[in-house]
Amino acid sequence: MPTRLVSFLTICLLLPLVAVAQEATKNPSLEKLHQAIAEIVSKHYPESTSHLFEQTIGFEHATRVYVTRLAAKYPPGVKPPVAPERGPLANGVWGQVWYRDGDMNDQPAYQRSEGVMQREFFKEHRYYANDAQKQGHLIVTLRLPLETTPKHRQFVTELRALLNQFGKYVPAPEG
User: What is the C-alpha separation between 122 and 144, in angstroms, rounded?
Assistant: First the structure.
């Protein structure tokens, strides 16, 4: 095989790996934030599990998959499509915390606003936390049972307090 062809093939095979390595160095480590979130979740839900995958932290306890209407706006008379969504049982919780680069004050607003939406089988909290100094923000989705208890309210209060200061758990951006 000619040397030029081997060099070309080698470059084609390595370029995706270089791009992934560069992307990984841009994203800050969420290990400390994951640990802090996991501590609060396990305090309120001792048998919960949590995970960190790339720039997303997830946690859950006593959940199942529901077939429910998608959370979106549709014209009057048009029923939203249904899809499988993981949500909590009566004593459960489900959450996802997604880290994104950039100060939210410098970017267009997200399509969905903050707040609590009552879905068919659970309540869904949407929350955005911003750290302008660290140039990053979080998109938080938290699902709790329809019946809200003082235990749930206390959990939400503690989790939001942590998320409001998430920047102290995330390293400063490089460069």
Answer: 6
Residue 7 CB partners (closer than 8 Å, separation 6+): none
Could you tell me the pTM of the whole model?
Answer: 0.81
Taking the mean position of all CA atoms in its chain, how far away is CA 59?
A: 10
Q: Which amino acid type is present at position 138?
A: L
46 Cβ neighbours under 8 A, 6+ residues apart: none
Write the pLDDT tens digit of every residue in 37-75. Answer: 999 999 999 999 999 999 999 999 999 999 998 887 788
Contacts of 173 (CB under 8 A, 6+ apart): 26, 28, 101, 134, 135, 136
Helix (H) or strand (E) run with residue 72 in it: none
State the residue for tokens 């938290």.
142
What does the alpha-carbon distance between residue 16 and residue 11 come to, in Å, rounded to a whole number?
A: 9
